[in-house]
């Protein structure tokens, strides 16, 4: 493995590891910060909606108290009571056949309940006759029963004289405060008036079809409730035969110190939808794409409709079915166009929330979607408690980071490519002097010559050492060659000497010829040696 490849691999390992470590830490810190901020927002939204819910019901209750103290309302409930007493005493049994047919025909058509054609049989005589008169009058006028104020024919029981005096006022009251209905109960527990003139009109809450219902609870409470008090009654079926859920705000009506009746506002589910969604403005309220505030009663059922169902019914049904929703519940949701009082959470889970302190947790919602939830409870007038959950899908909590995750990855990859490019460049710069040295040495064959290297970097010392080594090696090679040449020529004549007699009997030794090795060995030019006297 080459040095350059090792540098590239080392750079890849270090940069990738650093990016993963930094990215993981950054993501966790960012996600934690976003989750903390989103959690705080959910808490504030839940508290805000809880207060809005309490305030709205308290305002309704206060307006209910104002109406309950009005003389016209007290007079009306007393007059209605007398009219019903007259009805009970004067209605002959033999005249009921036509009334039964009128009531059965109307409710079987209005409720699309062809299988139940005996609704009238469940009503007492007074309720049956009163509703029959109203339905016949509405038929003659081709209008809704609510619009019936008085009869064109005779009013044998005096009921419609009182009705014409109070109906416009209570109808306007109902519209002003967006109530489903406004009802009056007399002191005997008879529903003596209803703006909508529904099935409960004329019912006796002690006996018959509507005994043991939520209206009965209202009546029982009213009998002992002190003046100037009101109470909210949570949703419950209208009666055993009609599973329509109803809720009321009720206030007792007193004449001096005597209880004479009860005034009720019938509160619709849509009211709670509007309050908890801030009039269906989830995004504007800070709940982004999936957030919502949902109320759950002690029975585990939702008290407002799902945001997902409001925005995308098909997707809700798909997820609800995947979460274990049964076909009857799905059909009920589709027919009623709401998830309230149909979908919900396990009862024990909701009761746990009602027993516990406010909390923030990550868990599954009513669609089994993992959600970040701010959980608390809200106490409504009269002691009713609902679990209130502000939630959003957990994936949306880190949405801002996830939105830019691809950008971060692209930037990281770009940074990695740049790092590898730089590593390649500097690796090349690092190995270039060595490659240059290698090429120069190869080009010299067996010879060693000084190599010129002009850069003043760490490799300059390498080249200087190489040049010194080459110089020393060349000197040694030269000396070796001389010695080898000497050794080869040791068997040859080194000098040719002429002996000449000298004066006074001395002899002279004159060098006449020399071997090349000889003058090279003694380091003297040949011309200087030839003719030299070497005699002693």
Relevant terms:
about 525 residues; Beta-Lactamase; 5-stranded antiparallel β-sheet; 4-stranded antiparallel β-sheet; 17 helices
How would you describe this structure to a colleague?
This protein is of the alpha+beta class and 536 residues long. The protein contains 17 helices and eleven strands. The strands form three sheets. It has a five-stranded antiparallel β-sheet, with helices on both faces. Strands 6-9-8-7 form a four-stranded antiparallel β-sheet. The chain has a two-stranded antiparallel sheet with strand order 10-11. Strand 8 (370-379) and strand 9 form a beta hairpin. The model has no long low-confidence stretch (mean pLDDT 86).
Query: What can be said about the biggest beta sheet?
Result: 5 strands, antiparallel
- Tally the helices: what do you get? 17
Q: How much of the sequence is in beta strands?
A: 15-25%
Q: What number is the mean pLDDT? A: 86
The low-confidence parts are none
Question: Topology of this protein?
Answer:
Layout: H1 3-68, H2 71-90, H3 97-110, H4 125-141, H5 159-176, E1 181-186, E2 191-194, H6 214-224, E3 231-237, E4 245-255, E5 258-267, H7 269-276, E6 292-296, H8 307-311, H9 313-322, H10 327-336, H11 347-355, E7 359-364, E8 370-379, E9 385-393, H12 394-397, H13 399-403, H14 405-443, H15 458-489, E10 495-501, E11 507-514, H16 516-522, H17 526-529
Antiparallel strand pairs: 1-2, 1-5, 3-4, 4-5, 6-9, 7-8, 8-9, 10-11
Helix pairs in contact: 1-14, 2-5, 3-4
